[in-house]
Amino acid sequence: MTLPLSILDLATIGKGQTAAESFAGSVAMAQSAEKLGYRRVWYAEHHNMSSIASSATSVLIAHVAAHTESIRLGAGGVMLPNHSPLTIAEQFGTLETLHPGRIDLGLGRAPGSDQNTMRALRRDPMSADSFPQDVLELQGYLTGPTRIQGVEATPGKGTNVPLYILGSSLFGARLAAQLGLPYAFASHFAPAALQEAVAIYRREFKPSAQLDAPHVIAGVNVIAADSASEAQAMFQAIKRARVSLFFGGGREFTDDEADMILDSPQGRHMAQMMTYSAVGTPDVVIDYLDSFGKHADADELIVAHQSPGTQDRLRSVELLAQAAGLVAV
Prior knowledge:
The chain has helices at residues 19-36, 57-66, 85-98, 115-120, 131-143, 170-179, 194-204, 228-247, 255-262, 265-272, 282-296, 310-324, and strands spanning 5-9, 40-43, 72-79, 103-108, 163-167, 183-185, 216-224, 277-280, 300-305. By secondary structure, it is of the alpha/beta class. The protein starts with a strand and ends in a 5-residue tail after the last helix.
């Protein structure tokens, strides 16, 4: 495996699990990733989702950073329309001050929630329209000069926390290219525009103070296991869990009910979200990732280890690192 590998930790709260147990799993995953030679671990901002514990993204990063030593940690990403740029600059300026040289800040313009949750967050539905301006304002707080006269981020100013634009459409590709920032495509759940978006980003990229050449990070799902049957069983369990999440309205479907929905047009559409998934024994997974990296024209892969349980995810992290020949610390 020639491309660097990173991890997107979804901070999953499994069936019968608490948020505290999810956080313990995130610490264990980051410690394992650090030991095994992964480049970075990112956490995504989601709200009002009972199965995801990373809603307070910067707080989770701080907790994991305090229990690791060297691996880069960051947001993949912060949904900037939910926040003021100054607040995010202060949060990530604080993180970088406490853990120098280890913090990334990925930015997305989706709300990361539904309309009711947006109202609960006190956000204007039109706030996403100002995303490009908000990115520049945030960048000014972290690098200087500030774009709001007389307003500085403390901590934040001069920390130069690296920014990444996240996206699943052509909009993010063009913005990242225009601003000369790295681009991370969410192909692990929104695969449709991957190749077109990356091509636009590479073609339109303009060098910046942060980055002199394009850098593409592509997301991909991974379930690596000791046997093919075990991996496929876990993959089916993940798809069934997604049926309950997307269509259950608070109820859990039986396996038979979930399988029936998966065979329906709605279920097949949902399954398309996981088009880019490497599932199987380590040799199968690494072959898939090698092909996917070329397909995506990526400079780095960020993998979401999707196994249902914490121990299975940790095993997937370990098996992939060994198969990829990552250098253990």
